Amino acid sequence: MKTATITEKGQIAIPKDIRRIKGFKTGERIAIMAFDDHIELRPLEQVKEKLEFAREKIMTALLSEKSLAKDWMSKEDEKAWKNL
Fold this sequence. Notes:
This protein starts with 15 loop residues before the first helix and ends with a helix. It contains 3 helices and 2 strands.
C-alpha cells in the first residue's frame, strides 16, 4: 500500500512505481470514477475503449431484438409471455 497527501488544491502525486506498473504516462489524461467506498483512476483511453465495446454490444443486441421480433412476436407469443 502506498500513501499520498492531498494538497490545498486537491492534488495528489501517484507514486512512480505505481504509475509504471499501471501504465500511466506523463501528460496522459485519466478518468476519475467515484464510488460509495472507493475512487478509481484509469487511463482515459482504456475507459473509452471499454465504453465503445459495450456500446457496440448493446447496439447489436438491440438490432437483433428488433429483427427477431418481426418473426417471433405474435399475439399468441405476447399472451404466453405476458405474466412471466
